[in-house]
Write a structure and sequence with these properties.
about 425 residues; 7-stranded parallel sheet; Elm1-like; Mitochondrial fission protein ELM1
């Protein structure tokens, strides 16, 4: 079994955790619970869960979801603030509830709130975000359970997180993941990638027309409550990968080495490409197959059908290559644990962040199609020597390494420091 090159969690300081500091009222302010406010997007919510894992709160949280109305004309209203969108939807439902326009306006009444499976987190249901209910909950349980850590991620969660801090500042510590684009002082900590500040660099300012610069956020350098990361937070920490290594031992150990994992995403606003990139990937993979022991390919939710169809047509019968069809257990963590090298499309910051946390070789295809802050993200990974471009000339048995990205652990350390300054500690 090849060792998994992962950085270990930072040891606790001598003498245990942060010294106990007594808050007003004579009790020790110990944070034993968390509230997660998600937006229904797995990528965003995974960042919240990744931070909770690093803080030791992965099994002690309540999940609320900022649920937008769906169906009918609602798909055209996502540009609105979520509170106004929900109020407008309720108004339209009352007005058109019994008319022939109801289907156009409302869509299918029975598909308003999608059901998601959170069994992996020990949850049977997800609560709909409601500021007043969340504030009441943390206040009413404060004496018995102590303060709560609130972690939110995504545009639709911003108003909830900032309102909770405004209404219950003594009962909560609020962390907003991803740049909220306004009023950073409304949060105790803001966790955001360095490339979100690309607009402030000399090159970034050259790429923005002068008339639009005032609308490009952020407009000021990060303040003391901003924690900058290299990439996205995630749950693929050392403990998760060791567990996955054991779970996938029987499936992945017998495969010929080196095992190369190919993760294919899909085009985004800042990383546009089409089926030509898939054709390029096919050619380059054929060029390196002679140095691969085995190859496993996975697609993401965003992968266009025409891209996956092309890959399947080309490699589905190749003896060295296995393509996951989406059925059965997701092998993603097993791939991270057992792969000898990765080939990843440039569009996915989260997939690249996870792969670069292993310290193993990561090859990127399609970075030339990225622009703006995505391009800055790739430049920073190359500067760290964490990634190399995939050219098709590689010997995939070559091994090279770099200091693994460890963003969640770094952010967790900053959270502990902030707790100590307030007189709190994790329990």
């Amino acid at each position: 079994m090849r060792p998994i090159r992962l950085s270990e969690p930072e040891p606790e300081p001598p003498g245990g955790a942060t010294p106990e500091i007594f808050a007003a009222g004579g009790g020790t302010a110990v944070v034993r619970r968390a509230v997660v406010i998600g937006n229904g997007c797995a990528g965003a919510e995974s960042q919240c869960f990744g931070l909770l894992r690093a803080l030791g709160l992965a099994d002690r949280f309540t999940l609320y979801s900022a649920i937008r109305p769906t169906g009918g004309i609602n798909k055209w209203l996502h540009f609105l603030p979520i509170s106004f969108h929900k109020a407008l939807d309720q108004f339209l439902r009352r007005v058109f509830s019994d008319t022939r326009f109801a289907t156009l306006v409302q869509g299918n009444k029975f598909m308003q709130h999608p059901v998601r499976n959170f069994q992996s987190f020990g949850l049977s249901s997800v609560l709909e975000a409601d500021t007043q209910k969340m504030v009441t909950m943390v206040r009413d349980t404060f004496e018995k359970e102590g303060p709560a850590l609130v972690v939110a991620c995504g545009r639709d969660t911003i108003s909830y997180a900032s309102s909770i801090r405004c209404l219950a500042p003594d009962n909560v510590f609020v962390i907003q993941i991803q740049h909220p684009r306004f009023h950073l002082d409304r949060f105790d900590l803001v966790v955001t990638p360095r490339h979100d500040y690309y607009a402030l660099t000399a090159k970034g300012q050259q790429e923005v027309p002068r008339l639009l610069r005032r609308w490009i956020i952020p407009q000021e350098p990060p303040g003391p409550n901003v924690v900058l990361t290299a990439g996205a937070l995630h749950q693929a920490d050392s403990a998760a990968l060791r567990s996955a290594a054991a779970d996938w031992h029987a499936v992945l150990t017998p495969l010929p080495k080196p095992l190369v994992v190919v993760n294919i995403g899909g085009p985004t606003r800042n990383c546009k490409y089409d089926v030509d990139l898939a054709k390029q990937l096919v050619i380059l993979l054929h060029n390196v197959l002679k140095t691969c022991g085995s190859v496993r390919i996975s697609f993401s939710r965003r992968t266009p059908q025409k891209v996956s169809d092309l890959i399947l047509k080309e490699f589905s019968t190749h003896p060295k290559i296995y393509i996951w069809d989406g059925e059965g257990p997701n092998p993603h963590l097993g791939h991270l644990a057992w792969a000898d090298a990765f080939i990843i499309t440039a569009d996915s910051i989260s997939m690249l962040s996870e792969a670069c946390s292993t310290g193993k070789p990561v090859y990127v295809i399609g970075a030339e199609h990225c622009r703006w802050k995505f391009s800055d993200f790739h430049n920073r990974l190359r500067e760290r020597r964490a990634v190399r471009p995939f050219t098709g000339l590689e010997d995939m048995s070559d091994s090279w390494s770099y200091p693994p990205l460890n963003d969640a652990a770094d952010v967790a350390a900053r959270v502990r420091e902030a707790f100590a300054q307030r007189g709190w500690r994790l329990g």
